[in-house]
Amino acid sequence: MRLEVPIYLALVAVTVVSAQINYQNPQFGNRGEEECCQEYCYFTDVEPYIQFATKTAYESLNRKSTGAQHIVPDCTPMQFWSLNRHGTRLPKATRIRELRNLEKIQSEIVANYEQRSSYPNRGRFCIEDYNILKRWRWNDTITEDKGFSLTQQGIEELKILARRYKSKFSQLLSGGYDERSFFFQYTSADRTHDSYQAYIEGLFGSDAFRVHANTQIDNRLMKPYEDCEAWQKNEADNQFTRTEYERFKESPEYQQMVRDVFRRLGFKYTLNASIVEDIYDMCRYEKAWYLNRHSPWCVAFNKDQLKLLEYAEDLKYYYESGYGNRISERIGCGPVKDFYDRFERTVNGNSDGVRATFFFANSDTIQTVLTALGVAKDYNPPKADNYHTQTSRNWKTSLIDPFAANLVSVLYQCRGPEKFKVMFFLNENPVDFPECSVGLCNWSTIQQKYEDLVRTCDVEEFCSGRSSSARVLVSSFLLTISVMFLRW
Ligand SMILES: *[C@@H]1O[C@H](CO)[C@@H](O)[C@H](O)[C@H]1NC(C)=O
Ligand SMILES: *[C@@H]1O[C@H](CO)[C@@H](O)[C@H](O)[C@H]1NC(C)=O
Ligand SMILES: *[C@@H]1O[C@H](CO)[C@@H](O)[C@H](O)[C@H]1NC(C)=O
Q1: Does residue 18 lie within any of the structural domains?
Q2: Could you tell me which cysteines form disulfide bridges (predicted)?
Q3: Residue whose CA is at the smallest distance from ligand 2 atom 7
């Protein structure tokens, strides 16, 4: 008893002293100056982190492609199929309004910096970073009425992409346009139409005006989550459960990142975390719009913080339209069935003559299709509480679904026992399935892998809610009964 009193007094004394230290260094919160944010200067970093999840600029990706993987010895490309995400775009209208408010945050940061010039520098941004952020202005050509539209950079991305594919698969894609050999379709959105327009200009140049797209816009195939009752019901059912994305944003490491960012920007107090998301968006959008420039807003983050923000985004998509949503595969099967049926007709010798097929859609379509195909799957699912074990995860939307993401499948005719082979390219890199050989799959392997998916694929029926749950229930009931009988 007597011993405890001095210990208690000592604790009080320590608390009072440390409270005073904090009071003297309010910008460093509860940690000492030495522990505060890592020293980092974005401006002088020759290799800044540019993986910005689904808002990554396509051209900033470091493609592994040597440019020759599409050449397969003893094989000739017979048919080309592609699914393209639209290129770099502007944010939606309401987001443009929100991001414009960063002008206010910027002036607060400038005030913070000017007032605090005598404060220790550690953890704050370097003078170069401060200077580029100070000079930032909102680009007045970006107005709310342009929400969601493709940028000039976005148009270039699709044009250049088309030219690269044309030179790689010249047997199929050059030689001019003719209606029977080419099939084009885009979803009902300006940004996918404009991406299509840029792509055909890349393919056919001044001849592009002759191109006909399939005007019977079939959103069930390329945008099935819209008007899909089953998808919306799933979302409604889950709206009261906290998602992994939300849980990650409440995690200690995310909260710490938010505090550190505000501290780096000279704020004494932590503001609403949504401002960090605004700054992140501005940083990654500007990087994609003006490819060869620094975005002044990127100076707010060091590399580790950008990786954390990227992970939050990956979690969001993983559980929305990736493997974390059991419905993804059910609606992503549509495009898989489309190329499978087309290739199968060619393999069976009754091709309809279409050599090349092109779809233009959105990020969710890319992700649900990759999920249906089994691409970028992780053995250990990314979760809110396993960030540190996920640094080499396959589900990195920066790499699989940047602006202008593209999935290509090519049917080859070959000499040898397997007459037909298929190769997939994701963002121009071969997709390396374990069942295949350096990306090249026997047609029989593709059949084994996807036949069930394709045969049971009925997005129309699934979305209208007529199928699935009810039928799964009935069939599992019947299965139970038959198992009971068998046991008997
Ligand atoms: C503003 O955006 C336009 C395109 O909308 C671009 O051409 C121009 O370079 C931008 N200006 C600045 C200062 O970034
Ligand atoms: C933070 O901002 C978001 C979006 O502006 C808002 O919905 C939320 O209520 C704010 N949170 C707090 C704690 O003020
Ligand atoms: C493809 O098929 C051939 C002949 O049927 C077989 O020898 C080869 O191992 C198969 N390759 C792969 C990657 O499955």
Answers
A1: no
A2: 75-414, 283-298
A3: 274
